[in-house]
Amino acid sequence: MTTLSKTELDALHEALEDEYRAWASYDQVIHDFGEVRPFINIREAEARHIQALYSLFEAYGIKKPKNTWPGKVEHYDSLHAACAAGVAAEIENSRMYERLLKSTKKSDILQVYRNLERASRENHLHAFERCVARGS
After folding, report:
1. Domain 6-134 is found in CATH 3.90.180.10
2. What is the pTM for the complete model shown?
């Protein structure tokens, strides 16, 4: 089994924590406002992102931390505010992955990071921007 450097290991944990937080945030919005789009779709996507990262944890024999974010994320006064927060979160998520791409040369990790960064930038961000433009 290939071992990871501390930098690679820290990056994987950072990515998983960020995906956990995103999932919990979008789940909280659904709890507060009902089964609303784009949150229901993006929450499902975040679950797939978590699974993609889990596959790396398993491949490298790393114990997966539990998601401790549910119940600890922000509540929003309106769906519009939640969508605006989603825009900001997805911009930060994309920036995080751009940074994490520099943490490794391992092709499997790079592929997952690229896929997750692209999903944030091309899919989630645009969905939240449309939500803000609609006013809800």
Report:
1. no
2. 0.93
